[in-house]
Each structure stands twice: as structure tokens, then as C-alpha cells.
Amino acid sequence: MKKEKIILIGGGGHCKSCIDVIESSNLYSIHGILDLPELFGQKILGYKIIGNDNEIEKFHREGFSFLITLGQIKSVDKRKKIFDILEKIGAKQPYIISNKAIVSQYAEIEKGSVVMHGVIINAGAKVGKNCIINSGALIEHDAEIGSHTHISTHAIVNGDAKVGNECFLGSNSCISSQVKITDKIIIGTGSLVLQDIFNEGTYVGNPAKKLKNK
Questions:
Q1: Predicted structure pTM score
Q2: pLDDT < 50 stretches in the chain
Q3: Do the Cβ atoms of 181 and 199 come closer than 8 Å?
């Protein structure tokens, strides 16, 4: 089977994890990585940095697909900006699923999202565009994850819960069943969310409460 040619955008630590996931899927051939001009020629896990963001359109015309491999901790701005550039030119952004993940055939995953090793996504769950579902995370039945959202390592989104766009759920955080979280919310590491969240901000603790601005 001929593998799809793909270029990665962003060469940090998250890129390394994505390379491992892409290789495990055995569906894609990584042509190279786009990063800062001063890093040109360097290698990440054997793959060369071959250009920068200014060359996205050139590689699109040559028929390459793309995956955004920049990380996302607090701000989604850089990932979202690149995603919008790719959308504007009509570039192909496949979703990538590790062969070590368990994803129901009845789940939906949109373009540009990556599902890392050890993830479980159950039936009826929906994952939006350009998301990171990180190692060991659990997305339960009928849960919904908005676009440009990062579900961190071993975070849990329980059944029928809804997480908005441009959110960040820290490692080992837990969203209770049927809870709704609006857009642009940060949930701290290990926090437990028991009630709906409608106001933007950072929430931490058990149960999670909004941090006050200093």
C-alpha cells in the first residue's frame, strides 16, 4: 500500500511524540518538518527540518498533507493560526490515530486531530478539528470535544460531557458525566470538574474552582 506523504509543522517535544504515533499507524511517509529558519538541516528522530511556515503553500502544491505538531499548553494561538492557513489554501489535514489507541468505529474525529498512544475513545464520542488527545486520555461515550482543544495525558472526559473549543484539560483532570464546559477554559492538573463552567478562565482543585485574577 502506498503511504500518504506528510509534512509536520513544529519541531519540539510534541513533534517527537507525533512522529512515534505516525510511524505506528503505518499509513504515512514523513517527508520532513517545518520549523524556525535557524534550525534548517537539523534532525528530529531522523527527520530533517526542511523549511519554515513560509513554504507551506509550496509543499501543498506538491501534493503533501500536513499535521500540526506544535504543542499546546496554555495558548492555542499558534496552532490555530497555522490551521487557518492550511484551511485557507485547501491543504489536506488528516486525523492521525495511534495503533496503540482504542477508538470506537462509532466515534467521530475531525481533520488535523491526533490521538496518541493508550487513548480510549468510546462509541458516540466526537472530537473536533486540530485537537490533541494525549497519551492515556479517556473520552467516554457520547462526550464531545470542541476544536483546537488539548486533552492532556490521562485526563478523563466522562459520558455525555461537552468540552468547548480552544480548551486545555491538564493531566489527570476529570470532567464528570453530562458536565458542559464553555470555550477557552483551562482545567488544572488533577482537577475534578463536577458542575458546568460558563465563564472563561482557569479552574483548579477538587472540586474545581476559578482562579482569581491577581
A1: 0.95
A2: none
A3: no
What pLDDT does 18 receive?
97
The gap between the terminal CA atoms of the chain, to the nearest Å, is 56
Distance of CA 135 to the CA centre of its chain: 11
* pLDDT score of 74: 65
DSSP reduced 3-state for 34:
strand
Q: What is the DSSP string of 149-210?
A: -EE-TT-EE-TT-EE-TT-EE-TT-EE-TT-EE-SSEEE-TT-EE-S-B-S-EEEETTTTEE
List all residues 6 or more positions away from 4 whose beta carbon is below 8 Å from its beta carbon.
Answer: 27, 28, 29, 65, 94
What is the grid cell recorded at 60? 501543498
Q: What is the pLDDT of residues 37-49, one digit of tens each?
A: 898 989 999 999 9
Which residues, including other chains, have CB under 8 Å from residue 16's CB and lie 6 or more apart? Answer: 44, 45
